[in-house]
Amino acid sequence: MIPHLLLNFTSKLRSLANAQFPANVPQKVDRQFIFTVGLGTHSCPQNQTCQGPNGTMFAASVNNVSFAMPTTALLQAHHFGQSKGVYTPDFPINPLIPFNYTGNPPNNTMVSNGTKLVVLPFNTTVELIMQDTSILGAESHPLHLHGFNFFVVGQGFGNFDPTKDPTNFNLIDPIERNTVGVPSGGWVAIRFLADNPGVWFMHCHLEVHTSWGLKMAWVVLDGKLPSQKLLPPPADLPKC
């Protein structure tokens, strides 16, 4: 009941959307993504005792990918063109295995592990649907995006309906945020303009879920103008 009351409240929030504080909501979408977010399981490492179901260890994932932190900084690898062995640009744009996300969980709750990113050309307009899965426990996930603000254009409970739900999107005066709660047993839709070149994390703000892998990253490529390009690291940048 509490998530429904919270959603009823937050769905009434609006931007000022006036001349001084405009709401520049992207009206045209270049790339559309659907991300499932939630908890799953990994195989338990040898010689360890794990507390997950059937002796597994808890994991968290986005589109069934539990993010593995590399030993080389993602921004460094991108800037110097040395992504090989650090990350791959093949993060899935849709759920790999569709199922009833808010109904009975699948028999297999195992998630994959990898360092996969989404690559976007400069000035791409993005629409992202984040769908809670509620596989292992019913929890809302506060998702935070680095590098950008976004507009929360829609939210609801149950499985996102790509035919019906977009007709109710608010493209006039939605709230502008950098963090939004994906409701337990529900979904949220955001739009943003990818006009900030670099590598930007998106992660759950529940620290334990982030440590379990509920995170991913976007690579925004340089634009054509000098002001649209990623700056090089400063000469006095300390080395780790």
TrEMBL record:
This is Plastocyanin-like domain-containing protein. Its main location: secreted. PROSITE patterns: MULTICOPPER_OXIDASE1, MULTICOPPER_OXIDASE2. It comes from the Eukaryota. Belongs to the multicopper oxidase family. Keywords: Copper, Metal-binding, Oxidoreductase, Repeat, Secreted. It is found in: Secreted. It comes from Salix suchowensis. InterPro entries: Cu-oxidase_C, Cu-oxidase_fam, Cu_oxidase_CS, Cu_oxidase_Cu_BS, Cupredoxin, CuRO_3_LCC. Residues 92-222 form the Plastocyanin-like domain. Signal peptide: none annotated. CDD domains: CuRO_3_LCC_plant.
